[in-house]
Amino acid sequence: MKKTIVTGGAGFIGSHTWVELLAAGFEPIIVDDLRNSEERVLEGLEKISGHKPVIHRVDCCDAEALDRVFAAERPSSVIHFAADKAVNESVRDPLKYYHNNIGSLATLLRVMDTHQVKNIVFSSSCTVYGNSGHSPVTEDLPPGEAASPYGYTKMVCEHMLRDTVASDAGLRAVLLRYFNPVGAHPSALIGELPIGVPSNLVPYMTQAAAGLRDRLTVFGDDYDTRDGSCIRDYIHVVDLAKAHVLALQWAAKQHPPFCEVFNLGTGKGNTVLEAVHTFEQENGVKVPFVIGPRREGDVPVMFADTTKSRKVLGWQTKLTLADALRDAWRWQQALG
Length: 336
Ligand code: UFG
Prior knowledge:
This protein is an alpha/beta fold. The chain is built from eleven helices and 13 strands. Helix 1 packs parallel to helix 2 and helix 7 crosses helix 11. It starts with a strand and ends with a helix. The structure holds uridine-5'-diphosphate-4-deoxy-4-fluoro-alpha-D-galactose. Uridine-5'-diphosphate-4-deoxy-4-fluoro-alpha-D-galactose binds next to helix 7 and strand 8.
């Protein structure tokens, strides 16, 4: 399991996972065409680790190019991060999401089969639960109605993996459902690189605090929650990255075939306003904000039941929302 292809390894979660894989003795190989990332991520990875990352600048929908990578590298496992992930963009341009997110996984699974690579960890999302109506959510909750084309692509990818495992007695698949990944590496050498106007809370908040945006709009304060704003499970990206290492190690010890699902969250929900106030307290800066109307498609409350990932993977989060918001601010300052 040592040589691992990390698709999307120059992205936000992929780059942090590259660091943890290397530290755990794996040999991570990045496959990323840098369409949503920058060279500086690779420089950051080298500074953090003292190792120059190996990268193949390849689009995962390009079967021939991917085939050449597998032939050259001969990996034993794959972590598939590469995907588009902006919910609102997926509503405007659904075909981009259907093509890239579903097409890349289908292509990757074919190439894996050709090269007899039998281990895959897949980046999924709590979006597959839809508006579950109650939290914490456990992995066995039936999938809800997808709130966006993006969410639907994650559901389809999960199905694709289940169907492929059912047809291949040798395949090991782990589906990791992320809640709200936030923060940055404590070195401030890698972090999230929002392209254009961020749609997620934390990058918008750091940009508002830095004066790059006029103000944050808090989408609704009339929900049935303790302060009226939505509740989410914000998980530090470094904790999240470490779970991928444990998932690979765990999978190696299990008999195939299997397709196992794990929630990755803290198990604790925070409101949007709590996140804003924690950010202000931790960093000693004001976040200019106004209360606005609800955002369409937002689920009022979503946080994880993490019993399974704790018991089975032996994974536990160590970092807090305060840690994440300090690291996010340090990263924002490093970005300039
Ligand atoms: N929010 C604001 N103002 C903003 C941005 C966000 O108030 O400018 C609020 C949202 O309304 C929500 C919370 O902050 O209550 C978190 O919003 P994000 O956009 O950061 O994250 P979401 O919970 O909407 O989205 C996350 C993942 C998606 C995934 C979705 C599933 O980013 O990939 O969970 O619920 F699809």
